Amino acid sequence: MTGITISDLRDDLSFGSSVEGVTFETLADESVREQLREAFKRRGVLVFRNMEPSSRLQVELSKVFGPIKDHPTKTTPRDEETGDAALGVIDMHYIPDDEKHAAGGLIEFEGQVLARFAPWHFDHCYNDELNYAGVLRCPIVPPQGGRTGFMDGVECYQQFSPELRARIEDLNIIYTLDTRLSTMRFGVNFKPVSEDPINQELLKEAAKFPRAMHPAVWTREDGSKALHVGPWMSVGVEHHEDAAGDTLLDDVCHEINRLGKGTSAYWHDWSETDMLIWDNHRMLHAVEGCDAKYERQTLRTTIKGDYGLGYFEDGKKVGEVSRDVA
Predict the structure, then answer these.
(1) Coil/strand/helix, residue 180
(2) Where would I find the TauD/TfdA-like domain in this sequence (predicted)?
(3) What angle do CA 69, 74, 172 make, to 5 degrees?
(4) Which residues neighbour 250 within 8 Å (Cβ) at sequence distance 6 or greater?
(5) What is the largest distance, in Å, between two alpha-carbon atoms of the chain?
(6) Handedness of CA 77, 126, 187, 134 (dihedral sign)
């Protein structure tokens, strides 16, 4: 059986590999599946090239790395190709001048109006449980822009100054299910122009979610420390919702933005035949946005696997709505 080839994404990156030769046939070989799992553990991001552009193949690839987890929010659109909503293939589709497919609203950044912009974040930060990984593909690629960026939290932590590392050690960050860019408070480097209409429905669903706490820095199994702060959906520092805590979180988020412009980040230029997986416990990711006149679509599957460090405020569970989240 034909094998696969794996190579580093870039010589100067501490993470990321490019993979060629993945098909339904090669995925049937358990030795190939184990090779992919080992590469993913080491590199944190795998980019699969020249793939059949199929949600079914995306699901099959996702299952190599663990069981699939449905998305926590029911208002998020699902892909129709697989015919099984439980597989959780979510559809993030922006169509210009189509309210149903606004998908994220518009922002102004460096003088340009952009669609599908997403600040640095990790997935399911608003939940007490994270997912292990996400698998993404981009069936509709804009002619320019629309790249997805990734940064290694281990490298980010090392590149933070010792003073800033000391300030965030042992602190938890508070997150909420509020994806509106107009309410984002920390690390803001853009101007909101319009909101996604789906946010109104999402806010109703958000009332079910108490505020979630996740560590700003956590220690991985290999002993390395990973910075794990997302500017998007963060609302404060636990036990420090005051001016000093807000200043600290803003400093951290602006430093993340600064690193995201440098050589520490990998920005993926999409092809319709690419698929990509990233470690959601280790990596931060973002979307640079594209000109609002262009259509863009991404489809994502989610892999189960929590790191066990997040929790809801006051030990609440989803659905236990109190006055502060109603």
Answers:
(1) coil
(2) 15-301
(3) 65
(4) 185, 186, 187
(5) 61
(6) negative
Under the phi-then-psi rule, with left for phi > 0, alpha for psi from -120 to 50, and beta for the rest, what region is 239?
left
DSSP 184-218: --SS--SEEEE--THHHHHHHHHTT---EEEESEE
The number of domains in the chain is 1
> Please, which residues bridge with residue 107 across strands?
114, 192
Pairing of strands 45-48, 17-20: parallel
pLDDT at 1 over 60: no
In a domain, 323, yes or no: no
**pLDDT (tens digit, 9 = 90+) per residue, 96-142?**
876 655 555 789 998 999 999 999 999 999 999 999 999 999 999 99
**pLDDT single digits (tens) 158-207:** 999 999 999 999 999 999 988 889 999 999 999 999 876 666 666 777 67
CA distance to 103, 115, 247, 271, 292, per residue, from 191 (Å): 17, 12, 20, 29, 14
Asked, for residue 324, whether it belongs to a domain, the answer is no
Residue 321 lies in a domain: no
Residue 29 lies in a domain: yes
- Structural domain harbouring 290: 5-315
* Of the candidates 218, 238, 231, 241, the residue with the CA atom closest to the CA atom of residue 178: 231
- What is the phi/psi pair of residue 177, to 5°? -85, 70
Quick one: angle between helices 30-43 and 55-64, nearest 10? 80
Q: How many residues can be counted in the chain?
A: 326
The CATH number of residue 70's host domain is 3.60.130.10
Residue 242, pLDDT > 80, answer: yes
Q: Look up residue 77 and give its two tokens.
A: 């659109």
pLDDT band at residue 89 using 50, 70 and 90 as cut-offs: confident
d(CA 209, CA 163): 34
